[in-house]
Give the backbone structure.
Amino acid sequence: MEQNNKQKWSLALVSLPVIIWTLIPVIWIFSLAVKPQANQADNNFWPRGFSLDNFELILFGGASDLFLPALLNSIIVGLIATTISVILATFCAYAIARLNFSGKKMILFVALAVSFFPVISLVTPLFDVWRSIGLFDTIPGLVIPYLSLTLPLSIWILSAFFQQIPWELEQAAQVDGATSWQAFRKVIVPLAAPGVFTTGIITFFTAWNDFVFAISLTSESARTVPAALAFFTGASQFEQPTGAISAAAVIVTIPVVILVLLFQKRIVAGLTSGAVKG
Amino acid sequence: MTTITERPSRRKALTDRARQERALGWKLAGPAFIVMLAVTAYPILQALWLSLFRLRLTDPDSREFVFFGNYQVIFTDSLFYSALLNTLIITVVTVAVELVLGFAIAMLMHRIVLPRRTLRTIVLIPYSIITVVSAFAWLYAFRTDTGFVNEWLNTLTFGAWNTTFDWFGSWAPSMTVIIISEIWKTTPFMSLLLLAGLAQIDGAMEEAAKVDGATFWQRLFRVILPNMKAAIMVALLFRALDAFRIFDNVFVMTRGANNTETLSTLAYKQTIDRVEIGMGSALSVVLFLLVCVIAWIFVRGFNVDLAKGRN
């Protein structure tokens, strides 16, 4: 589309409020994290003064035995749930993309239906069953319900990715003299890998973001970051944990934001593939 | 007549091949499908069964079959209706605002030239932030002791706004903050879905309308919107069902205080705080059925074709 300079600049101007609106809470949580304790409640958006006390409290101080295990749990649970989902979904999506069999539409439909599932509906029965079979407050006790979030998402996104792969290239490579293993390894894997990787990232975010299962099915030892944040308390009953929560929020936000920024294009493609063809 | 003799053998050959392909297909797709059903269908059936009992974990001996007793309690309790109303208000308001806001941002991202990459990157940030973190950020922004919002409103209104206004002291302001946090966090998703729909519209069509002298609004309502109806409907469905199960923001900000309970937090309280497994299960079943009804209304009423584009 042709645009003259005036239009170009007016659009740039319009994007300014969007950028400000998006960044305000992000800057704000950073600001709270670096505000010294004395300035915590000064109602200023920008910090007057700078201190790393909150980060110290979280990483080495009194709150570290709450935060660090939670961080570890979040990473472990997220990675296990992601690995299981992506492996199962890769086989499933391969079948949906390449084979013609009755029931594949049904599989996609069920995946979609499951992803609309109200998460809290699973909590009550799982809470009851997990307590009686000893899965309450354990890593597997979180991984299993996480599959209900991550598996349908992986199936849906991977199917969309795989449907765009030009599978004929595999045969073409074989015609050119490659063995079927070579054709798979040198042609198909490089084509499929970005899709699998992107699905892994989106799936991991979903598990990483979960709050409902995390607070309902854990009490201490398997608690993940979002749940731990909600149960942070100040040093005394009358001291707000504002700074500590903000510092923890900053620490868990930075790596994820960097990942999203690095793989922005692919993540957008993955997120929208479920809804719109293309 | 010859075709009759030919047909059975041809059909059989096809069936054999189709059967093989189907067997392989299910072998590959089966495990994922079974696991997916096992982690959802089994719990919901369990909930259905448990919902027929009066069952409190602290007092397991009193387990008693009450048939639809729990449902009767739910549907005669005003707490359920206020939670339902709150959930519906949050769903309708967030989805409506996000549709307009998300569409505006999608249009902007579609046309912008100058900070194109920067804008697309920044818009994605809320998506990558944990919902609980977003809830805390907005909670602290609006709170009287830590927040800046009252100060800013005071400045903007030249001192008319009271800086001690307690956003979490009553129903309407609390709901407003909950809705703001929800909108901030999920608008990027909405605008990305709408952007994907926008990108599919043939630019020539809009150009032609422009040449014919159509104004911006005419082009918007006569050309752009009708051509991305499917994308809009899918985005609305995704977001409506997501907003309907809102939990994180409410839990972090109010824990249901000032009558801000939603269906999800109500079910959580029954199950986890009060360990009323029977009642919690009944609420879970009701919530599940409500989600089914909403999905059905979209798919039937608005003719959303979810499988569109794939076969």
In short: The mean pLDDT of chain A is 84.
